Amino acid sequence: MAEDLVLDTAIRDWVLIPLSVVMVLIGVLRYFVSKLMRSYQTPDPKIVKEGQVILRARNLKSAANFIPPKSFRARRIYLCNEENGLLHVPKGQAQNAQAQMFSDPNMAMDMMKKNLSMIIPQTLTFAWVNFFFSGFVAAKIPFPLTQRFRSMLQNGIDLSTVDVSYVSSRSWYFLNLFGLRGLFSLILGEENAMDDTQRMMQMGGFGMDPTRSLGAEKDNLDIIQHDWVLSKFEQRAEATLRKLVKQ
Amino acid sequence: MVSKSEEEQLNRLESQVENGGGGAWEYLCLIRKLKIRRSDNVLKYGLTILNDPKKRSSIGNDEWTLYEQVAIAALDCHSYDVAKDCIKVLRKKFPESKRIARLEAMLLEAKGLWEEADKAYSSLLEDNPLDQATHKRRVAMAKAEGDILKAVEWLNKYLEIFMADHEAWRELAEIYVSLQMYKQAAFCYEELILSQPTVPLYHLSYADVLYTLGGLENLQTAKKYYASTIDLTGGKNTRALYGTCLCASAIAQLTKGGRNREDKENQDLHSLAVTALEKDYKKRAPSKLPLLTSTLRSLKLSS
Description:
Chain A is mostly helical.
């Protein structure tokens, strides 16, 4: 049955290749449009400082055993005390990220711009593909696949008898949408390539509360048991030297 | 930090460029990437590219980056005219840029016009208080002026915001050591050890500072950090070996007769350090061996 299906070469010339080319062109275009619309926004000193405090607290947490107990305690008090510790967040002050977002019109504007450059071209291309190319097989991959891939590769064709290694045009669109990252990084340079999957993840991570991570670091620091490893180092140094002297 | 393979690559490119084999642009890019200070070479080869319109246009938009790089290198080499020309070209291209404004301030600074440069930096920082490079320039300028206390002040202000910047901590530590403010320096070195616990250099410097501070507790701690340096370097660090000996002798003097428990446990360490030192001297500088023995004898460590 699989052998009977022969794809017209016109499909290759007028669907498969144009679709990929259009996807690439749209990707490049979108990159330049978003570059145009990108606004440089000065970071808030408070947020920068919070990031740095968290970094320092993490360093302290991970390397606590390398400094003398006295120094460690001094640092912990500096970071965690209830009056003016850097990691301590007063209860009323922990403002909601959501509220902050709405109070700052720039932020909302930025998000909208991002959305515009992402969603509009995507909808348009999807509509275009749907309108012109829906419902037929555009390509065949050269190896067999299990039935589970049917929903991924044959989106838009509701035939259960077609072999799974055939790819429908709409699925080809999706494969291109998510798979062109490597090509973009070649065209636009390593760090400029940003594919949609990543963008979507970023959207999901938006609105994280920085004060919460401050609190989490504080809790982490509070429960650390300080165990100075330097006394062990003396023995280790002895062992090292013994070995060195014996050589 | 520059890795070994990168350094090799750099040296290879350098000799290639010196012998007229081309690749000047790649060489300059590598220098920029690794943040290495080879200003004379940058100036020489950068100018050959910039003065040749064909070569200049072949690098496209990176031309401006090169102008900036050459300008900074020229400042470093005291060729102010070249720097001025580069900055002028950049200014024409980017009339509003803050980055160029910083370059202009650096030109003032290089010429020794401290007050004007300071004014320029301050106004830049007013516009963007989170500009790390400008903050650091201001510290460097205060240091160059000889106004160390001001440098400390700026650096502290900088570290208040960017407290995870370990290079700034290192700078501050070294300044404090030069000012003989050892307690503050010790704090900075602790901070450095926290951020990079496996770098023996910081352990060693911390131990040095603690030894200089003196006092039984500090000496014991210093000895521990010398020990960790020995361990981290595999016993190859002569300074750490000497430090162990000095600490042991100082501790012995302070706790005359009444040896406590901890000392008994670790009394092998300094005798081992002495042996290691002697062996090292025998191997590498046999003529100085008597000097070592007499020094160690004066510390009452060598038997």
